[in-house]
Amino acid sequence: MPHIPEELLERAHLKYGAPVSLHVSNGGIVIQAEGRDSDQAWFWTDEWQKKEREADEDAAAGRLSGPMTGSELVAELERQHRQAG
User: Would the pLDDT of 39 be above 80?
Assistant: First the structure.
C-alpha cells in the first residue's frame, strides 16, 4: 500500500496512519488532515510554522516579556525608542 513519505508527515505535523483527505488543486495534490478545522489551515502553513519556531526560540532564550497593561506597553515602546535613537 502506498504511504506518505516521513518527511511530509513531519512537515504536516501528522503521524503515520493519521486519517487524511486528498484533492487536486492548481495542478498539485493537497493533503488535509481529517478532524482539523479547515478554518485553521493557515496555522499549518510553512510560513506560519516558521514563525512559531522563531517564537519558541525567543521564549527559550528569554527574549519575551510577560503580559503588560496598556500604559506599561507604551512605556516600554518609549524606552526602546529612546535606546534606538
Answer: no
